[in-house]
Design a protein that fits this description.
Number of strands: 0
Order of helices and strands: HHHHHH
Radius of gyration: 16 Å
Distance between the termini: 23 Å
CATH superfamily: HPT domain
CATH topology: Four Helix Bundle (Hemerythrin (Met), subunit A)
């Protein structure tokens, strides 16, 4: 989990400033803002003042590594038509994305989660359900790449 890399983040996430309305992507605006820079700044300040060795760079590294793993597992789950696991993974990705400020990715993962749950609620999963989830997962994968690029640009690694 991403926030485990900066222990005080878990204590402060509830106090995080609300996302600014211009940072929330709209479904009607493809490619909207991928990051909420206020949220990222808030996390940077928490990590810097936590007294722990955690850094925002480490938090971003953990998010990207964990995100890659989740996206790959989501793709595998879709191939296996395991929509329950896919919905759970999408929920986890949505949460970690929202925490770090990757708002467009959080929104995309939320769409995958909802569509997978809708399909699971039917007596039989239809081919059109799987195609809808596949399309939404493609958007999520694209948004993950955008979030990774934006995070790496906003928080350059200190190596």
């Amino acid at each position: 989990m991403v926030i485990a890399h900066c222990p005080s983040v878990a204590d402060h996430v509830r106090m995080a400033p609300p996302r600014s309305s211009d940072a929330i992507p709209s479904s009607s605006v493809p490619g909207g803002p991928s990051l909420d820079l206020e949220r990222l700044t808030f996390l940077t300040e928490i990590c810097a003042g936590s007294g722990s060795p955690a850094t925002i760079e480490g938090l971003v590294d953990a998010f990207v590594e964990d995100g890659h793993f989740r996206v790959v597992r989501m793709e595998w789950s879709l191939r296996a038509r395991d929509l329950g696991t896919l919905a759970d993974l999408a929920h986890e990705l949505k949460g970690s994305s929202d925490t770090i400020g990757a708002v467009a990715l959080a929104e995309a993962a939320g769409h995958v989660q909802r569509q997978a749950r809708v399909a699971l609620g039917r007596s039989a999963v239809e081919a059109s359900d799987v195609e809808d989830v596949r399309r939404l997962l493609g958007v999520t994968t694209t948004e993950f790449r955008r979030a990774e690029t934006a995070l790496r640009a906003a928080v350059p690694a200190r190596r």
